[in-house]
Design brief:
Layout: E1 2-4, H1 9-23, H2 28-48, E2 53-60, E3 63-71, H3 77-88, H4 94-97, H5 102-110, E4 115-121, E5 128-135, H6 153-164
Length: 165
């Protein structure tokens, strides 16, 4: 997990995703596209939600498979509506989502529809937030449909213990 500072969330998210995917040996085109998606989602978080902003990249057997941009707004409802629209419409033009939702459109297209929004607990403040997540490319070309999310309760207990002591 990486904390994304307000004002530089997009830049930091891009750098971290690039480094992780380069280490995994992905092609440059996939890395460039993943950078664009994560930058758009981080910018959306800064524009439409409140801190903290976090970037989480999950791996299975050492392969990065899933990326989350987390913010301090606990309500994923509106994002869920947009993602459901994207799932139900076969062809949708960028102008429709150019003002609000471009990052979601890119995440949806890039991940072949394997993206979602859901409530989470922020790790930096242990408060409710939401994640907007998408499947990352892999060398095999396969993407996880429903990647396992880790059980954050043990980490939260440790975070609370450290902050109270």
């Amino acid at each position: 997990m990486k904390v994304l500072q307000p004002g530089s969330a997009s830049r930091r998210a891009r750098a971290v995703v690039r480094e992780v995917l380069q280490q995994a040996g992905l092609p440059e085109d996939d890395i460039d596209t993943a950078e664009l998606v994560v930058a758009e989602l981080a910018a959306n978080a800064e524009k439409h939600a409140r801190p903290p902003y976090e970037l989480r990249i999950f791996s299975l057997d050492g392969i990065p498979t899933w990326c989350e941009i987390v913010d301090g707004d606990p309500d994923p409802h509106e994002i869920g509506i947009i993602l459901n629209l994207l799932h139900s419409v076969k062809e949708i033009g960028l102008p429709l989502l150019a003002e609000n939702g471009r990052g979601l459109l890119l995440a949806h297209r890039f991940s072949h529809g394997h993206c979602q929004a859901y409530p989470v607990i922020t790790l930096t403040t242990a408060t409710p937030g939401k994640a907007v997540a998408f499947a990352l490319p892999t060398l095999s070309g396969n993407r996880l449909i429903f990647p396992p999310r880790p059980d954050l309760r043990p980490g939260l207990a440790e975070l609370r213990r450290r902050s109270s002591g």
